[in-house]
Amino acid sequence: MAQPFLDRLEALVKRYLPEDPNLECKHFFSGAALYAHGTIRVSLSPVGLAFKLPEIMCTDLIDSGAATHLRYFEKSPVKKGYALFSHYEELSDGDTAKYLRAAVAHARPANA
Predict the structure, then answer these.
(1) Which tens digit of pLDDT belongs to each residue from 46-55?
(2) How far is CA 83 from the centre of its chain?
(3) pLDDT in tens, 70-88
(4) Which parts of the chain have pLDDT scores under 50?
(5) CATH number, domain at 61?
(6) Where are the alpha helices (DSSP H) in 2-89?
(7) How many domains does the chain have?
(8) What is the DSSP-derived secondary structure letter of residue 78?
(9) 40 belongs to a structural domain
């Protein structure tokens, strides 16, 4: 069940991000995750497409109603710092690229 999510996430990364040896897509629970410098920056799962973004950007997206808080399961805690787009297919190409780039740029190398 997770393979379609992995395939879609890999296609998004290939389309919007330049070749970067620090990026890796992997299976993640029932979906897929994009890792940058060893940390999860983006996830694509049955709940939607979620970006780990700088706090102000994440807050603005959620406060505006463009995104919601990320919860992988109905009663699970909110994953702080993530903006979730349940209907990510409706995101413009420009917004998808912007959020992917911001999520990756916000990552810090594991040894930093």
Answers:
(1) 999 999 999 9
(2) 8
(3) 998 888 889 999 999 999 9
(4) 112
(5) 3.30.1460.30
(6) 3-16, 55-64
(7) 1
(8) P
(9) yes
